[in-house]
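Example for reference:
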Amino acid sequence: MPTCLETIDPLDLFMRRAAELALRGRGATAPNPCVGAVLVKDGRVVAEGWHKAFGGPHAEVECLADARAKGVNPADCTLFVTLEPCNHQGKTPPCTKAILEAGVKRVVVGCGDPNQDVAGGGADALRAAGVDVTVGVEEALCRDLIDEFVIWKTTNRTFNVLKMASTLDGKIAARGGRPQPVSGPQSLQDVHRLRFQSQAVIVGGNTFYGDNPQLTCRMAEPPLPAEYRQPYAVIVTGKLPNAYSTFNILRQRPQQAVFWTTEYSAKTPLADELRERGTHIWGLPERSGPVGAGLDFARGFARLREELACHLTLCEGGGHLALSLCRQGLVDEFVLYLAPRVLGDDKGKSLFAGEAVQSMEQALPFRLAHTTSSGEDLKLTYKPRRA
């Protein structure tokens, strides 16, 4: 939040609103980026739009349609859009064509299109047609919005969000490890919103065996759409359960369960029994070395995308799984719900665990991307600082 001595450029405020709208489409637009747009006239937002689903109208087109429905002439407005408008025919016509046909004379863009095949084409086309185009307003914020798009374009894996909740002293559970909520009810509901955006939810074996979770999205508001499909439940463990055990996931939806296990465990009769129920058993190779040792999770994320059409995952593992994912460079966003409580027990379970580190130089670097309140909790969103 700005202090009383700070002033915010109106352009930034309008772009921030467009960014808020963009997040409403997160997950549903995959493998396209989430994008938001607003039309501004006389210093106020008069129309809004966002890319709602893959294959559907883009944010600019949705915003122009909202203006017409409200009797607003787009030609009298400035268009703010988080990502450079497209200038090519894909599943929908070029957005530049819709902007020009609407008579918009000024366009403010958050960030340029990172796709090298089309980068700069939208802005250049608008300028060639006489439109005043500004690029780079709230650029860092808007680039964060398309992080997943960049991952999908440059790698063969999913975009991965690590979610954790802790006390002020960094504890995710008391020493007994019983499944008790750390954060408040608003944060718990927000986690279901994150699950709604994801196609797979990932936990470790300790969580699976100790908590017997469902790993389903159970949002109170808004209600889940009729066509909604629950995310796959991915369990990371070297110890496979009995195929007909009473665990919620195996009892309720065995065909949506995926076990990441060792290559040895994946070849056992127990694994074959689980496969007969439709459960996915994937043996992952093991990494060696002092950094990121254990199962090679990159293989698992690549298979989720290739075989199960997953693009965005939510990792809800404990401290050991969280640290392994970070060390292997597979955490693209870290969401931390910080509860206003102190446990005060050095044997309580920590946010990250599993290594004996001797120097701060070995610490994993993150940058703070966003901060907001979540009831009495603080929701902190971090991005990794990549080389």
About this structure: The mean pLDDT is 92. The CA atoms of residues 88 and 280 lie 39 Å apart.
